[in-house]
C-alpha cells in the first residue's frame, strides 16, 4: 500500500505518498501508542467530519496525548488531502502516534505526530455480500472490560484482537467475526457495530466496552425518524435465535446486512433495506 502515487498530509505538509515514512524505533510501533480515525467523503464532502476529528482528539486524550493539533486543523488536513489527491468518493484515515524521539515503555520525551491519508475504497464488503448478507463467525477472543483498557478510544492496540478474529473468520470461510465481550454478551464485529430486529423493534448492545460508532448513532436516529423503536441493552448470544434481521453499521461497512452468525440465520428484510437506503440518501445529501 506504500508504493503508489498521491500525497499524504504529514505533520502539516503534503508529502509524496512513498515518502510518508516513520523510523523503526517509533514508540507506536513497539508499544501501540497510536490512535486513528476512519471517515468517508461522499461526492466531495466528508460525512460528520467534525465528529471524527473530535473523536481522534478524545482517543488521544485517553492515551495521554498532549493536544498538538486543534479540531479545526485536523478537519482542514482531511479536506486538503482529499482535494490534493483529486478524490470525490474516498476513505480518509487520520492517525496520531508517539514518535521515535526516545525508546521505552514510558512515554515522556515522545512527540505526537499526525498524518492523514485518503484513497478510493468503494465498498468494504463487496456488492454481493451487501445484497445477500454477510456470514459472521463467533470469535474466540473477547472484548475486554472498561477496567482493562481504554475501550472507548479508537486506539491501535485494541485492534490486535480484531485482526486475530477477522483473520480466523476469513480463514474459516466467513466474511467477518462477531466478538462477544468479557461477560459473554454480544459486542460488535471487528470494525463495525451490530443491530438486530425482532417484531419490528431494533435491539443493539449498549456500547459500554466498545466504540459507540458515529454510524451507529446516525442509524439509531434514522430508525427513530421512521418510527422504529430502538432498544440499547445487554444481548446474550442465545437470543440471536429469536432475531429476524441483523446488520452491521460503520463508516467503512455503512449499513451491511447479515444472513448468518454462527448457527443463527437472518433474512435481509425490509427494515434493513430501508435503513441501508436512508443512510445512503443521508450521506449523499439526497
Ligand atoms: N467498532 C469498531 C471496532 C470500529 O473499528 C468501527 C469503525 N470505526 C466501529 C465500531 C464503527 O464506528 P463508526 O461508525 O464511527 O465508523
TrEMBL record:
EC assignment: 2.6.1.42
MF terms (GO), sorted A to Z: L-isoleucine-2-oxoglutarate transaminase activity; L-leucine-2-oxoglutarate transaminase activity; L-valine-2-oxoglutarate transaminase activity
Gene3D superfamilies given in the database record: 3.30.470.10, D-amino Acid Aminotransferase, subunit A, domain 2
Presence of keyword Transferase: yes
Key words of the record: Amino-acid biosynthesis, Aminotransferase, Branched-chain amino acid biosynthesis, Pyridoxal phosphate, Transferase
Reactions catalysed according to its record: L-leucine + 2-oxoglutarate = 4-methyl-2-oxopentanoate + L-glutamate; L-valine + 2-oxoglutarate = 3-methyl-2-oxobutanoate + L-glutamate; L-isoleucine + 2-oxoglutarate = (S)-3-methyl-2-oxopentanoate + L-glutamate
PROSITE patterns, per database record: AA_TRANSFER_CLASS_4
Pathway: Amino-acid biosynthesis; L-isoleucine biosynthesis; L-isoleucine from 2-oxobutanoate: step 4/4; Amino-acid biosynthesis; L-valine biosynthesis; L-valine from pyruvate: step 4/4; Amino-acid biosynthesis; L-leucine biosynthesis; L-leucine from 3-methyl-2-oxobutanoate: step 4/4
Entry's Gene Ontology BP terms: isoleucine biosynthetic process; L-leucine biosynthetic process; L-valine biosynthetic process
Cofactor(s) the protein needs: pyridoxal 5'-phosphate
Listed InterPro entries: Aminotrans_IV, Aminotrans_IV_CS, Aminotransferase-like, B_amino_transI, BCAT-like_C, BCAT-like_N, Class-IV_PLP-Dep_Aminotrnsfr
Family: Belongs to the class-IV pyridoxal-phosphate-dependent aminotransferase family.
Role according to the record: Acts on leucine, isoleucine and valine.
PANTHER family according to UniProt: AMINO-ACID AMINOTRANSFERASE, AMINODEOXYCHORISMATE LYASE
Protein's recorded name: Branched-chain-amino-acid aminotransferase
Species whose genome carries this gene: Paremcibacter congregatus
Amino acid at each position: 500500500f506504500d508504493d503508489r502515487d498521491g500525497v499524504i498530509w504529514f505533520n502539516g505538509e503534503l508529502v509524496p505518498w512513498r515518502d510518508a515514512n516513520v523510523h523503526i524505533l517509533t514508540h507506536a510501533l513497539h508499544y501501540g501508542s497510536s490512535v486513528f480515525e476512519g471517515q468517508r467523503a461522499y461526492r466531495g464532502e466528508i460525512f460528520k467530519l467534525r465528529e471524527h476529528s473530535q473523536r481522534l482528539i478524545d482517543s488521544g486524550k485517553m492515551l495521554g496525548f498532549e493536544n498538538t493539533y486543534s479540531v479545526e486543523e485536523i478537519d482542514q488536513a482531511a479536506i486538503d488531502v482529499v482535494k490534493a489527491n483529486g478524490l470525490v468518493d474516498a476513505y480518509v484515515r487520520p492517525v496520531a502516534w508517539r514518535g521515535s524521539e526516545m525508546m521505552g515503555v514510558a512515554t515522556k520525551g515522545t512527540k505526537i505526530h499526525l498524518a492523514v491519508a485518503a484513497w478510493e475504497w468503494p465498498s468494504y464488503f463487496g456488492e454481493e455480500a451487501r445484497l445477500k448478507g454477510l456470514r459472521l463467525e463467533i470469535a474466540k477472543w473477547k472484548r475486554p472490560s472498561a477496567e482493562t483498557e481504554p475501550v472507548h478510544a479508537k486506539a491501535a492496540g485494541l485492534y490486535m484482537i480484531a485482526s486475530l478474529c477477522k483473520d480466523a473468520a476469513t480463514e474459516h470461510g466467513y466474511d467477518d467475526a462477531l466478538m462477544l465481550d468479557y461477560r459473554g454478551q454480544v459486542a460488535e464485529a471487528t470494525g463495525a457495530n451490530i443491530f438486530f430486529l425482532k417484531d419490528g423493534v431494533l435491539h443493539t448492545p449498549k456500547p459500554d466496552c466498545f466504540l459507540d460508532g458515529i454510524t451507529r448513532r446516525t442509524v439509531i436516529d434514522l430508525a427513530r425518524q421512521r418510527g422504529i423503536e430502538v432498544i440499547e441493552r445487554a444481548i446474550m448470544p442465545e437470543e440471536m435465535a429469536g432475531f429476524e434481521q441483523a446488520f452491521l453499521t460503520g463508516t467503512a461497512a455503512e449499513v451491511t446486512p447479515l444472513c448468518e452468525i454462527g448457527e443463527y440465520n437472518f433474512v435481509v428484510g425490509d427494515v434493513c433495506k430501508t435503513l441501508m437506503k436512508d443512510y445512503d440518501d443521508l450521506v449523499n445529501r439526497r
